[in-house]
Design goal:
Layout: H1 2-30, H2 32-39, H3 44-70, H4 89-116, H5 125-157, H6 163-192
Length: 194
């Protein structure tokens, strides 16, 4: 039931982001000159690196889910040996958490840079749509980071790793993969499509 409920909730989130995409493209169509001028200030290689970190975090998240499905909450070997099923849910989710935190910090750094270049919310419709779309995504990533902390906390508080804990890890992975896919769409829309 939890998985089905999460998928239904993510469907509503998909509609929310669809509205943001529609707004972005609508305002872009009205003032293409502003978009051409404003997108010139974007650092595409920096954003691509940040995107790669987020996409790779989806891989580490899924590795954590595989460990949870095996019932392996912690590592079974040395910390440096992560391949071959040695790492458990905790190690993979901690790595995913750090990668997500790096993404959010990278996005915040990009905001500071763009504000110094004069791209702000009140300055233009481009700034409004840029910060609205990427900001809401950043809030969702932060929500995912909190969810990782909750799952990790449960693994330390529980006496025994149960099926319910594995389900919570799986549900958090659904959310994390959703956030990653949305970002891929945002990255293509904002940084690549000229």
């Amino acid at each position: 039931m939890v998985s089905v409920g999460t998928i239904v909730w993510l469907s509503s989130e998909l509609m929310f982001f669809a509205a943001l995409f529609a707004s972005y493209y609508t305002i872009r169509a009205v003032s293409p000159e502003l978009w051409a001028q404003s997108t010139a200030g974007l650092d595409v290689p920096y954003a691509a690196t940040n995107t790669t970190i987020l996409v790779l975090s989806s891989v580490t998240c899924q590795a954590g889910v595989f460990a949870a499905e095996r019932g392996q909450v912690g590592r079974s070997g040395p910390l440096w040996r992560f391949w071959g099923g040695s790492w458990g849910l905790r190690e993979w989710f901690v790595l995913t958490y750090f990668m997500g935190a790096i993404f959010v910090a990278g996005q915040a750094f990009e905001y500071v840079t763009l504000v110094h270049e004069g791209i702000t919310i009140p300055a233009s419709s481009y700034g409004t749509m840029f910060y609205l779309t990427t900001g809401f995504h950043g809030i969702h990533v932060t929500g995912g980071l909190i969810a990782f902390l909750l799952v990790l906390g449960r693994t330390f508080l529980a006496r025994k790793f149960t099926h319910e804990q594995a389900v919570s890890a799986i549900v958090v992975s659904y959310y994390w993969h959703f956030v990653d896919v949305v970002w891929i769409g945002l990255f293509a829309t904002i940084y690549l499509i000229k």
